Amino acid sequence: MLVYPSGVDVSSSALRFLTQQLRCHRRAIGSRWRRLSVGRQALLTLAHLRVGHTYAQLATGFGVGTTTAYRYVTQAVDLLAALAPSLADAVRTASMKAYLILDGTLLPIDRIAADRPFYSGKHRKHGMNVQVLADPFGRLLWASSALPGAVHDIRAAREHGIIDALAEASMRCWADKGYRGADGTVRIPCWGRWATLSAGQQAVNRSHAKIRALVEQAVATLKSWRLLRKLRCSTTRITSIVQAVLTLHLTSSER
Which of 3, 24, 82, 198 has a C-alpha 20 to 30 A away from that of 146? Predict the structure, then answer.
């Protein structure tokens, strides 16, 4: 395999943050000599998450074994995932905002047609359903754990407790028609075909669409980490990866 110099479009603050977390972890477990320093391990992990390089590619580039690359990435991802904010934390942080925007996105995975629980009829592909909360400016605030792609958005929101959490905090939330029946503080467009809606209802739906469209920026932020555009790992690892990406994004945004 050939090796060439390359770059990773991630802020240096994310690298410093992850390096510090790894350093503290090694100190806590009394780790001795490692093949890679904490800084190199952090860089390896960021390259995997941001660019989507495989373990074999990372192993060649960093001069370690494939198993070692896997172990380093898994350790770093688990550390980051443990630091991700909970739904309660996100709602509490957003308590001073005028409203939130809720949407679901599908993270594609490499599964075969027989894996029906992971097949999304809406997107016509296999994937994992992740719920996203954004602020009025479209900035990513929180991402849920991953559920099979066949799970509908309204069911996913209920399973994660999003609707109840928003209602308890009296937090208004805009969402699309996929959340019909959510009630509480969740607002969806007027239901029905466009031609059957009154002029007033059409105006409401246009206004609603302008507000809700900003959540696409939050989804794009999540998927700017290219590993999430086509996941080839076990579905049991996807939640940790999403939470790790969320932690890195929020850390970079705060600095």
Answer: 24
- Whether 112 and 216 have beta carbons less than 8 Å apart is answered as no
Adjacent-strand bridge partners of 106: 129
pTM of the model: 0.92
Residue pair 8/47 in contact by the 8 Å Cβ criterion: yes
Q: Give residue limits of the domains in the chain.
A: 1-83+234-255, 87-223
User: What's the CA gap between 32 and 175, in Å, rounded?
Assistant: 50
Contact of 249 with 128, CB cutoff 8 Å = no
Please provide residue 102's backbone torsions phi and psi, each rounded to the nearest 5 degrees.
-115, 135
Tens-place pLDDT, residues 49-105 = 999 999 999 999 999 999 999 999 999 999 999 999 999 999 999 988 999 999 999
Residue-by-residue DSSP string for the chain:
-----------HHHHHHHHHHHHHHHHHHT----SS-HHHHHHHHHHHHHH---HHHHHHHHTS-HHHHHHHHHHHHHHHHHTSPPHHHHHHHGGGSS-EEEEEEEEEB---TT-GGGEETTTTEEEEEEEEEE-TT--EEEE---EETTS-HHHHHHHTTHHHHHHHTT--EE--GGGTT--TTEE-PPPS-GGGS-HHHHHHHHHHHHHHTTHHHHHHHHHTSGGGGSB-S-GGGHHHHHHHHHHHHHHHHH-
Tens of pLDDT, residues 147-159: 999 999 999 999 9
